[in-house]
Design a protein that fits this description.
Residues 43-320 form the ABC transporter substrate-binding protein PnrA-like domain. InterPro entries: ABC-Purine-Binding, PnrA-like. It holds the Pfam family Bmp. The structure is a single chain. Helix content is 42%, strand content 19%. By secondary structure, the chain is α/β, with parallel strands linked by helices. The protein has two domains: 39-144 and 268-295, Response regulator (Rossmann fold, 3-Layer(aba) Sandwich); 146-266 and 298-365, 3-Layer(aba) Sandwich (Rossmann fold). Strand 8 (224-228), helix 8 (233-240) and strand 9 (244-249) form a beta-alpha-beta unit. The longest helix is centred in the N-terminal third of the chain and has 34 residues, at 2-35. The protein is globular and about 55 Å long.
């Protein structure tokens, strides 16, 4: 009997020692996380929806990745042309197996898969672009691109002679709908008679489809083409027809020099540096980030000689008014295509309403199928 009791006591003591050891290990892990990581301990993964050579959206993100490497000296890897579907989950797990402890997923359609993988890998920091879901170790980020879209709309509104402006849109999701509305409000601020015609391609990256959609808009009378697409295909169509263009994502001047006037552009690098530096400092936490022109995450590329007379002055004034808060882009009164008042005079759309945007303002010709 005494032997059994002694054995039991030994087992209890061993179990206590084991539990204390586990608690200490967990505490050490927490303390290490709070203390941060060195650049040698960091490996950052980037998941792209298109190829880095698209000259647009994915190219802009990859420039941000290279900026991160340059500024912080951390190791990075990337996967390009990743499907916005179940295959994304495998890519995420493969990156974790390769040692990535910070992962940026750069397209809306990755969101649900990032959320799932984040829950089973709490030690990894995930940042998802353009979505809204969050977990304890998954944040989201985007920029108030509608500010730069509004400015680019001013250029288009001053340039058009037919008062018909074409817009090639990827998908009828809130991000793109918001962009088209902001662009149109910019157009209307200087040319209330102009209309913006929209055609959807239902793809982020397909140079042929993007160009074909632009050609259809040009055939219908548009003399300026804008876009929410990843390549310069729409602008090249404009150049071939002696029309003019507004780009997106990057400065696309070299892609269609005779048509291009300016672009609404992304500058991801400083944000990537900021987030990884916080991981290194042990101060990172999941958050929802929506930067503005004040943060330099977005902006307008320099105007070219194709831009209309007076555009520079009009842009500078409008930008100053946005930055000062004098101009609220989505302030009422705002009326939809059917003439219904959606935002009353004196009211302003909330961030949540902007993130769920699913209607077009009056002055836009085109339909939103997804509501």
């Amino acid at each position: 009997m005494m032997k059994k009791i002694s054995l039991l006591l030994v087992l209890v003591m061993l179990l206590s020692i084991f539990m204390v050891g586990c608690d200490n290990k967990q505490e050490e892990d927490k303390n290490q996380e709070k203390a941060g990581l060195s650049k040698e301990d960091i490996k950052v993964g980037f998941i792209y929806v298109g190829p880095i050579g698209d000259g647009g959206y994915t190219y802009a993100h990859d420039q941000g990745r290279l900026y991160l490497e340059e500024k912080l000296g951390v190791e990075t890897i990337y996967a390009e042309s990743v499907e916005e579907g179940p295959g994304c989950e495998k890519v995420l797990n493969d990156m974790i197996d390769q040692g990535c402890n910070v992962i940026f997923a750069t397209s809306y359609g990755f969101m649900d898969y990032v959320e799932k993988v984040s829950k089973s890998n709490p030690e990894v920091k995930f940042l998802h672009c353009s979505g809204y879901k969050m977990t304890e170790n998954m944040g989201n980020y985007f920029g108030r691109m509608y500010e730069a879209r509004y400015l680019s709309g001013i250029v288009a509104g001053l340039k058009t002679e037919s008062n018909e402006i074409g817009f090639v849109g990827a998908f009828d999701i809130p991000e793109v709908v918001r962009a088209i509305n902001a662009f149109t409000l910019g157009v209307q601020s200087v040319n209330p008679d102009a209309v913006v015609k929209v055609k959807w391609t239902n793809t982020w990256y397909d140079p042929t489809k993007e160009k074909e959609a632009a050609i259809a808009l040009l055939d219908e009378g548009a003399d300026v083409i804008a876009q929410h697409q990843d390549t310069a295909g729409p602008q090249q169509a404009a150049e071939e027809r002696n029309a003019f263009s507004i780009g997106y994502n990057t400065d696309m001047k070299e892609k269609a020099p005779k048509a291009y006037m300016t672009s609404a552009v992304w500058n991801w690098g400083p944000y990537y540096v900021d987030q990884v530096q916080k991981v290194m400092d042990g101060t990172w936490s999941a958050e929802s980030y929506w930067g503005s022109m004040n943060d330099d995450i977005i902006g307008l590329a320099p105007l070219t000689e194709n831009a209309p007379e007076g555009a520079k002055e009009a842009i500078e004034k409008a930008k100053a008014d946005i930055l000062s808060g004098k101009t609220k882009i989505f302030a009422g009164p705002l009326v939809d295509q059917e003439g219904e008042v959606k935002v009353k005079e004196g009211a302003e759309m909330t961030d949540q309403e902007l993130l769920e945007f699913n209607w077009f303002i009056k002055g836009i010709e085109g339909k939103i199928e997804t509501k």
